[in-house]
Amino acid sequence: MEFNQRLFQFITRIIFYVMLIILIISLIYPHTSLYFRTSLFSPFTSKLNSEDVILTPGETFRLRVYRINKKATYWSTDFKVCNVSINGILKAKRVGTAIIKVKIERRVLKCRVRVIRINKSSIIIRSKKTEVLKIWGIRSRVRWSSSNPFVASVNLRGKVTAKKRGKAIIKARVKGKKLTCVVIVY
């Protein structure tokens, strides 16, 4: 009797852990690059011109379907972040992530759109003071630089240090996208 009870507990634990793993994978998988990866491209199938797009609010991007002679239907999973027209023109609205889906007959193609922005577009700061800049909407390495490091310098984490009177432009590069912040030191 005790053996049957232990066996039952063992089996229920295995089922619990398998279900937990399936739940975790189903929550994480759509946010990985594997979700967007397609198999080898065949010349007889359709393909999007981009599967991962980074935009800033107000910016547009034309999403095209290659090697197709059929009607394509576009829609966004989050129209508050990024809207898409019937012609495939994406318009970024606010910070966040949206998936643009394109339906061609029975096939659905996907494109991830990440809308990013810098937390401050301009700073007026006193000499010898600091201010921190951040990029909202993406968790990726940011490369910071200053147009005039003698006026205002920036470190690897986006901390701006005012040095002397003047004007400098702080530039942030994220996956090929450039964002700027004007710094005026008084």
Count of extended strands: 18
* Distance from first to last alpha carbon: 83 Å
Our estimate of the beta-strand percent is 35-45%
- The largest beta-sheet arranges its strands as 2-9-8-5
CATH class of the largest domain: Mainly Beta
Quaternary structure of the protein: single chain
**CATH architecture identity of the largest domain:** Sandwich
Helix-strand makeup class: alpha+beta
Which ranges are low-confidence, i.e. pLDDT below 50, for 5 or more consecutive residues?
Answer: none
Shape from CA axes? flat
Please give the radius of gyration in angstroms.
24 Å
Order of helical and strand elements: HHEEEEEEEEEEEEEEEEEE
Pfam families: Big_2
InterPro entries: Big_2 (IPR003343), Invasin/intimin_cell_adhesion (IPR008964)
Keywords: Membrane, Transmembrane, Transmembrane helix
Transmembrane segments: 7-29
What's the arrangement of secondary structure elements?
Elements: H1 2-28, H2 33-36, E1 47-48, E2 52-55, E3 60-62, E4 65-66, E5 72-76, E6 82-84, E7 89-92, E8 96-104, E9 107-115, E10 117-118, E11 122-125, E12 130-132, E13 135-136, E14 143-146, E15 152-154, E16 159-162, E17 166-174, E18 177-185
Parallel strand pairs: 2-9, 11-18
Antiparallel strand pairs: 1-4, 3-7, 5-8, 6-7, 8-9, 10-13, 12-16, 14-17, 15-16, 17-18
